[in-house]
Design goal:
Blueprint: H1 2-42, H2 51-73, H3 88-114, H4 125-130, H5 142-145, H6 147-167
Length: about 180
């Protein structure tokens, strides 16, 4: 169990690193697009039509990937931050309650990202996005909307890894029998 939990923890850390780099790149893209919009508008008096939309889409990627990174780091908003430091039975019970809250929010988002209410994948969030084009950018909207289910999928991986590490007694900041 401990080896599996550590492997899940490493997978979660690797995915978090990739997501963090993605969030930084999206932020840089957003800053570039917004800056180019300002320069082109006020210096050249000819703003391109694509900069505002690119900045908005990059902001979505930045926010969604950043949210999954915040969850991984434990810096996401929580009502009772001290509960994460509890160990033993109460710590596990509190971790499970928190996990149920995350699952209650993430599972429907992931489900309806793929399916609609009649189990039709073509009418799910991603299916509808695949058929739509961005207004100013000549690409499918799925390149932008995929940020939402991806971020929630990453959050679920982080949650599962965190629970596995807690059950194995390997959570950082929690006293283990061997420490």
């Amino acid at each position: 169990m401990r080896t599996f939990a550590l492997q899940l923890g490493r997978l979660s850390a690797a995915l978090n690193s990739i997501a963090l780099w993605g969030a930084v790149l999206a932020l840089l893209m957003m800053v570039f697009a917004a800056s180019w919009q300002v320069v082109a508008r006020y210096v050249f008096e000819a703003p391109p039509i694509w900069t505002e939309e690119l900045a908005r889409r990059a902001m979505v990627w930045t926010g969604m990937l950043g949210a999954s990174c915040a969850f991984y780091a434990g810096t996401d908003p929580t009502l009772f931050p001290a509960m994460r430091l509890r160990s033993g039975g109460p710590g596990i019970a509190l971790a499970m309650i928190r996990a149920m809250g995350v699952l209650a929010f993430a599972i429907p988002i992931l489900w309806y990202s793929v399916f609609d209410s009649r189990m039709n994948a073509d009418r799910g969030f991603l299916g509808r996005s695949l058929a739509r084009q961005a207004e100013m950018l000549d690409v499918s909207m799925i390149w932008f909307t995929a940020a939402v289910p991806l971020a929630f999928l990453l959050t679920l991986v982080h949650l599962i890894a965190r629970l596995a590490l807690r059950f194995a007694g390997q959570m950082p900041g929690i006293a283990t029998p061997n420490s």
